[in-house]
User: Fold this.
Amino acid sequence: MHLYLLQLGARRQLDFELRDGGPPVLANLNRLAQTTQTTLPVHDTLDHFVGHVPLAGWEQLRRRCVQRLLRMKALDAARLLGQPVLLLDGTGLLCFHQRHCPQCLTQRHGKQTLYFHHVLEAKLLGPGGVVVSLGSAFIENADAAAAKGKSADEVKQDCELKAAQRLLPRLKKDYPQLRFVLALDNLYACGPLFALAQDLNWSFVVTFKEGRTPALWRDYQALLPLCPENALRRTWDDRVQEFRWVNQLAYEDSEGRTWQLDALECTEQTAEGGAHYFAWLTGLPVGRKTVEAIAQQGGRYRWKIENEGFNRQKNSGLNLEHVYSSDPENWKAYYLLLQIAFLLTQLLERGSLLRRLAAEAGRPFWKLFGSLKNVARRLLDSVRFVVWEESWFDPRQAGKLRIELDSS
Ligand SMILES: [Zn+2]
Assistant:
């Protein structure tokens, strides 16, 4: 976890930054980990021990963090019509010019074959742009034996949609009390996903594009002028938003199942003359009272966060695309640890604890530390040079803490 919280960027940095640090390092880490080590393990030893923990163990750790946040109701402000919003977001993580493991996905580029690893991430939307990793499905070819003797083009590859079919039922089991609204891009505008959401008793808001569902798009365009009353105009200082919608569109999927979906759109004009257009399909009831919330929290937010979540994990000291372990199974453990650390980082950044500290010091947060990179460095200083007091670990004090997220 320190690898990420301190933004060290590579595993060997643990040796450079911690092993040769000040005298309190060993005592501090022993206190945190509740161990009695007499020397600091080198990073290869740590990697070895990471390999002895089943992935389910790291997943359980993440679940316990999330459940604590849910109990605190720290994420409730971002609910859509009372339901928590779950974003699905896939990204590429590793790419090699040679096969790295039997499960690699493969792709031909001319004469060259690339080997890579993707992940599908389910993220719970919190206030103030906070996203909480709830579940991860590694997109990989499980059946390596079946691929033997076949060219890369012939192997049926794992993909985001298949990964969603594995991931979402698992989340239903982990969080049976939550009725999610899935916020999805137009890849998911298809029968299998609608059926899955129905099975799980969840709702969805999915991007609506002509190319993905052309017949449905034509129906929508034909029906829009027939219901001019389904319109809402909102004026802000710097922009005008116009919402329009059509209820109960019929959609027949590739397996002959029929779905009733509401469609909505938002046209936004900015003062500088810019114009944006967005459209979505949803199983939620769209009307005058709900259209704006569905468009903003179910639709626009997903787009914003897609540009932020993985970007920040890749382009910061978290260094998501770094090969933290050459062992493919260990590497997944590092991925999960990074997700948990990112949750802690966001709580620090967006939570009320540091804001309160800054207020006590009479300075705004950014003047207190300057940047989040600096926060990571100050944490490193603390591990290395500050003797941590026993009272800081009092569970009764910690139990009283309530983290509120900045929703501004
Ligand atoms: Zn691989």
Notes: The CA atoms of residues 232 and 243 lie 5 Å apart. Residues 100-101, 103-104, 115, 117, 328 surround zinc ion (CB under 6 Å).
